[in-house]
Amino acid sequence: xxxxxxxxxxxxxAQASRSAAAPADDDPERLPTAQLEMAAFGDHLIxxxxxxxxxxxxxxxxxxxxxxxxLVASFFTGWLLPLGAVAxxxxxxxxxxxxxxxxxxxxxxxxxxxxxxFSAGWLIWGFSQLAVV
Length: 133
Known about the structure:
Blueprint: H1 6-26, H2 34-41, H3 60-74, H4 81-96, H5 102-128
Helix pairs in contact: 3-4, 3-5, 4-5
Protein name: DUF4190 domain-containing protein
Region (Disordered): 1-29
Transmembrane segments: 63-92, 104-125
């Protein structure tokens, strides 16, 4: 077996290390280990997309229910005028929210304003019937 002198062995070792390190020197984006490169840039990765936030509950049906209840009550008595005011506030809030139904919001606003008019009419008529002493 031929023996290598120390200078030849050092030259061969340097040449082998240069050929092994050459791909890393040529590619500036190459990571030091193959496992990390596969984990970071592999085709198997699925990009994270955060889920869409759930839409908040709509106020329009509640405003319409309050408006209908206030309107029915205003046919019989005027004392539920505050219920009509609550229905107006809920209707306006539901009209300001982008995901609520505009059609239901407008209906609830109209019905609640009508209930306030009827309730105010009952209250005006009732106070006019009081005996003045």
